[in-house]
Amino acid sequence: MARCLISASLLLVGLSAGCNDQPFRPSSDGDLRLRIAGGNNQAGLPGQILPLPLIVRVLDQQHLPVPDIAVEWSTEAGTVTPASATTDAKGEVHAGWTMGKLAGPAHLDAAISAGVTVRFIADARPASSGGWGILNDVMTLLRIPTYDGSSQVVHPDFVATPHGVMAQDRHLAITPYPAGNASFENPSVFASSDALGWQLEPGTPNPIVRPGAGYLSDPDIVFVPESHDLWLYYREVVNGNIIHLIRSTDGVHWGSPRQVLSAPNHRIISPSVVHRGPGDWWMWSVDGGTAGCSGSSTGVRL
């Protein structure tokens, strides 16, 4: 089974803001700026919610965030939730866009009063179309601050949480794999506010867990809305394959691992877990047979 190494460079953007003796008080919405802060130019399946939230930011004339400004969303292609909200302390509003049932380009508008509007664009593509349009148009190389310093990672798995549940809305589980060395392949979790700059949150162990024997691999992270926590599954390879679960309520502090599944060696590889609702859990994995990665064929089990 082939592995891909991800290495890249990190782009740092510096933001600065001036100071004033008196706080800015807009006299009208003409004094405000509405900007897209995330979630534009996505692609998704008709009738399904887009993978990333839509984010708009309201700024004053000094480019500082403005809270408590009402933002209205509107579209003829699907639905947006919530349809209206007020900006938070960061001047932001987050929303989810469920695409309409028709395939093709679509747009959605966010507006504050007095006609200040920005437009989001998305592309609804059927699963059988064989292409994802906008998603393939731009590639951004990411630098992940792995504990070994290599930034070479495998098995990335991403999860977005509802805004305000945790300090950061996005988490990424990976394992380092420098030059194919499995002894470094320990599950690690990083956080981001924009899905581009991934960092270790203060206090987060790096890696999350280390092996007692053998080696670890194949993390898969899930957000559970019923309990508002993150569940991280990973594989331990000793004389057989063992799938463990470790949980966190904040993405920083993690509990003790719990064994959930085991099988002979090579029979549970790359578990992928989907939580569809209360009591409705699915796990797919690769069955490598007796030979594992060196075998001539593998299978997928549910």
Question: How does this structure look, described?
Answer:
This protein has 302 residues and is mainly beta. The protein has 2 domains: 29-136, Immunoglobulins (Immunoglobulin-like), CATH 2.60.40.10; 153-301, Tachylectin-2, Chain A. The chain contains no helices and 19 strands. The protein has strands at residues 33-38, 42-44, 54-59, 70-74, 79-81, 84-86, 92-98, 104-112, 116-124, 153-160, 170-176, 188-192, 215-224, 229-237, 240-248, 258-264, 269-277, 280-287, 299-301. It has a 5-stranded mixed beta sheet, with no helix packed on it. A hairpin with a 3-residue loop joins strand 8 and strand 9 (116-124). The protein is elongated. Mean pLDDT is 85; it is low at 1-28 and 129-138.
Supply the key terms.
about 300 residues, five-stranded mixed β-sheet, four-stranded antiparallel β-sheet, 2 domains, Immunoglobulin-like, single chain, Tachylectin-2, Chain A
What's the domain count?
2
List the secondary-structure elements in sequence, H or E: EEEEEEEEEEEEEEEEEEE
Oligomer: single chain
Q: pLDDT average, as an integer?
A: 85
Helix content: under 10%
Structural Rg: 22 Å
CATH class of the largest domain: Mainly Beta
- How is the biggest beta sheet arranged? 5 strands, mixed
The CATH architecture term of the largest domain is 5 Propeller
Provide the CATH superfamily of the largest domain.
Glycosyl hydrolase domain, family 43
- The unreliable regions are 1-28, 129-138
Broad structural category: mainly beta
How far apart the termini lie comes to 18 Å
What's the total number of strands?
Answer: 19
